[in-house]
Amino acid sequence: MPVGEGNAAAGVLATDLVARISAGDRSAEREFVGAYARGVRALVRRHCRPNDPVVDDLAQDVLARVLQRLRAGAIRDSNALPAYVQTVVMYATSAEYRARRHTGSDEVLAETPALDNPLEQLRSDQLGRALRHALEQMPVPRDREILMRFYLDEQDKDDICRDLGIDASHFHRVVFRARERLRELLLRSGIEDC
Amino acid sequence: MDMSQPGSTMRMAAWLEEAWLERYLNRRLTADEANWFEAYVLDKSDMLQALENDTMLRDALAEVAESSKFSRISVSRARQPIAPRRRFRWGRLANAASLAVAAVLGGLVGQRLMMTTERSAPDAQLDALLANPPRVIFETMRGPTSRPSRYEPGESRSPILLVDIPIPTDCQIDHARLLVGDKIHTLPKPAVSPDGYATYAIPRVWRDGARIELTFERPSESCPSLLHFDLNGSR
User: Fold this and answer.
1) What is the pLDDT of residue A145?
2) What are the pLDDT digits (tens) for B190-227?
3) Taking CB atoms and an 8 Å cutoff, what residues of chain A touch B45?
4) Which of A19, A131, B18, B153 is deepest in the core (most CB within 10 A)?
């Protein structure tokens, strides 16, 4: 059973896992990676710029750093593990962008292929194309603008509503529809089974 | 649910998780709450799916935006309140520029104005006009002479035009000048924002004929000796 699924048995395993990794158990390390890899990647991607090819490398880096600390016995409280992992994600992503400011490596990275896995790359490309098409087909430019401002400019909902002269219900409708549209696309591509 | 224990083995009730998730996706959580929630969802695949979908939507929007197929509806950033942020502000010049002490020259309001970010005697009328100035944005440098990437119209009565300019990494500006016809005005050295942009405010009436010229200290391979930013064509 994977660690951290949120029941008592998982809790026992999580506690056990921290101790086992600290004791040098390599299979426990694999369990840790299995349990946290997806979450780490999701958070790293969320904290990175859109479509940044560095996501997978950073996610690996985060997992490696946490493992290092676990091996050293620096984390003893299994309940503290998720918060620690999240902090390392934040630290790693901010350090990455700070470093780029000094090295000017942004442009090089922008041209770097994102994924090593060709199947994942293909799936991502197809889904991206479908979603782009869906966004381009939005009949009201203002609705697309709402999404752009919310997701890209990270503007506050109230500001968007005020600036564009719309009410909150319209804002929620547009964002909700966009999320639903994405969900449909995911379902159609067999990615999401819910 | 104790917010200090995201690693707790007990899960929140489904409706509560939904509420947290919705607030997180709608950026309604404080920084501490968002950090806590991210730690909470780390190993919960059902909730991660919602996060991943939302990020995927963001990334697709970024690609659409980069294609420049659609023009954006412009509203001044100056009217937007500055909220505390926890995420990176990536690439949007709207968030990048630091407003340098600006030289506003000429007889726009019948006298010479010197605009600074800290004016000692705020003028309500002027403030109203300056609240939403038009903006010319240079997103990339294209050789020694660059042309604007974007123009945001702003308030039509505004006497001020803001110009956002990218500054090459690690380059120190030696001189900044504004060339209008055969006249040359010295501009103050701008404060470069953490994202590498400087913003100048110039009289709006000069938009069509002005050029900003920057010379840099210690030119090198990565740092040119001279850059021009032509405001012509900023429509």
Assistant:
1) 82
2) 777 766 778 887 877 777 778 888 888 877 777 778 88
3) 38
4) A131
